[in-house]
């Protein structure tokens, strides 16, 4: 009998009932987060430059903060402030960060360095505990609370620089794991610190029979590859043959739906799948209840959020934010509208646009879904295709053809013969067969039916669409040539013309 599991489950349920994790007044909670951030950083160089002390005395702190502090993208805040913070204390946050998170660089640019302070690590852990407490909402066996948790992260072997350590955020978080997690965390730091992805996965496959895994966490594309390796190495039919108590998978990083069919094929029976929103800049939201993949925004865990409509009120047709965009806080959001997320955090990020777009599905429950990236918005000829719409189109394609497209990318390129724009798709096929012409018909038909802007574009400036079907491994090989494989790396859903032509050239070899 799982005695300790029953005790832990009872404690979680009791705390969840008596001390709900969500704020009773989210509006007041967000103002408190902002005031705490401003108060803590008012004596930093950034705080003095933008006069945080005066903002704190304003009648409407949120309005004054919005008026006095500009919105920053990475290039601007890094050039003006964060570069100094690497060597000097008290620039955008008291002291110097002990860590810098390297972004995954999906667009092919040089990795960003995002500061990670001790306070930011504590903030992330608080959100993690809130998610754990929400397990009380799910009908989970008591035995689960005694089982191992396998987190598939980027390498935890961090690089030492001039007074700080750097690596991808999942590797940093694993390296700073709370003590209570050490006994159940797998694959353990020794394996997690193996830099080579293939070697790390091989070691996981070899050690897998020694573990009793009840929960998985990681990006779905790489999780599928790891599970397949475990199954292959141990000569299994499905992953439950070696981990019979596996009950939960916490996904994140990219939309799960395009991977659902492939992932579930590796199981013996259905498990609970929970989504999370964990970025280099912070842990922003998590799935808090069954029956939905929408995630509850972490409004009272140390971060302050603002939202810019991802339409003509906030961005131009190229996905660039307007000089004076419409900006709202939590009070002004509307359900069903795409917003660019603006965050202020205890890492010294101030009104920072991280590049993701989200949509509120239930404002009362503070639940959101990630809809894409501000730059992953295909609108060169007015087609207005968000990442969310592209993912749905691939889902329809898989359903109607019986194929399994695991990865994909699309972009607008000019035809050599006349300079007119066409949409070029590259589909990474995992299973089954898929005729490129059939895929073209299905994608074009669905998008014209589902998106009136796309339908208008197809009658005017968008002269054609082209589809290239390749094994999914070929797309990963393209990432691997730039040493971007495994961990938190995500294949971009929309590519600029130059990068897309580079991919097409690679696929010809």
Automatic annotation (TrEMBL):
Domain of life of the source: Bacteria
Molecular functions per Gene Ontology: acid-amino acid ligase activity
Coiled coil: 429-460
Domain GH3 middle: 298-362
Family matches, as PANTHER family: GH3 DOMAIN-CONTAINING PROTEIN (PTHR31901:SF9)
GO annotation, cellular component aspect: cytoplasm
Record's protein name: GH3 auxin-responsive promoter
UniProt KW keywords: Coiled coil
Span of domain GH3 C-terminal: 389-498
């Amino acid at each position: 009998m799982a005695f300790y599991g029953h005790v832990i489950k009872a404690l979680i349920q009791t705390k969840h009932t008596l001390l709900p994790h969500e704020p009773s007044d989210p509006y007041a909670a967000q103002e408190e987060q902002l005031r705490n951030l401003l108060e803590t950083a008012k004596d930093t160089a950034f705080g003095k430059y933008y006069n945080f002390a005066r903002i704190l005395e304003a009648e409407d702190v949120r309005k004054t903060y919005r008026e006095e502090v500009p919105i920053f993208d990475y290039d601007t805040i890094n050039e003006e402030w964060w570069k100094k913070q690497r060597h000097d204390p008290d620039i955008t946050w008291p002291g110097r960060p002990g860590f810098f998170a390297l972004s995954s660089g999906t667009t092919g640019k040089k990795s960003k360095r995002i500061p990670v302070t001790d306070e930011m690590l504590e903030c992330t852990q608080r959100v993690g505990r809130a998610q754990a407490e929400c397990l009380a909402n799910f009908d989970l066996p008591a035995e689960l609370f005694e089982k191992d948790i396998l987190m598939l992260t980027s390498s935890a072997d961090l690089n030492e620089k001039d007074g700080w350590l750097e690596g991808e955020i999942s590797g940093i978080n694993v390296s700073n794991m709370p003590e209570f997690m050490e006994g159940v965390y797998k694959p353990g730091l020794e394996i997690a610190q193996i830099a080579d992805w293939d070697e790390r996965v091989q070691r996981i496959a070899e050690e897998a029979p020694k573990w009793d895994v009840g929960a998985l966490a990681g990006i779905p594309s790489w999780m599928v590859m790891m599970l397949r390796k475990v199954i292959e190495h141990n000569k299994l039919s499905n992953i439950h043959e070696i981990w019979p108590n596996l009950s939960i998978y916490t996904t994140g990083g990219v939309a799960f739906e395009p991977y659902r069919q492939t992932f579930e094929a590796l199981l013996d029976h259905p498990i609970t799948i929970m989504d999370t929103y964990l970025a280099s800049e912070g842990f922003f939201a998590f799935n808090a209840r069954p029956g939905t993949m929408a995630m509850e925004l972490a409004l009272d865990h140390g971060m302050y959020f603002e939202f810019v409509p991802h339409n003509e009120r906030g961005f131009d047709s190229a996905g660039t934010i307007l000089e004076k965009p419409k900006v709202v806080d939590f009070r002004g959001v509307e359900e069903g509208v795409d917003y660019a997320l603006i965050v202020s955090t205890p890492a010294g990020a101030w009104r920072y646009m991280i590049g993701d777009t989200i949509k509120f599905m239930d404002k009362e429950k503070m639940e959101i879904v990630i809809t894409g990236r501000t730059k992953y918005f295909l609108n060169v000829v007015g087609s207005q295709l968000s990442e969310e719409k592209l993912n749905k189109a691939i889902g329809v394609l898989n359903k109607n053809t019986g194929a399994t497209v695991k990865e994909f990318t699309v972009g607008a390129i000019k035809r050599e013969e006349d300079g007119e724009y066409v949409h070029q798709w590259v589909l990474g096929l995992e299973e089954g067969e898929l005729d490129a012409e059939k895929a073209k018909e299905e994608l074009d038909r669905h998008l014209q039916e589902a998106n009136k802007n796309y339908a208008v574009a197809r009658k005017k400036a968008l002269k054609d669409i082209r589809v290239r079907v390749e094994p999914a491994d070929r797309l990963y090989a393209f990432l691997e040539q730039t040493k971007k494989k495994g961990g938190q790396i995500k294949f971009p859903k929309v590519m600029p013309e130059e990068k897309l032509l580079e991919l097409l050239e690679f696929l010809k070899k």
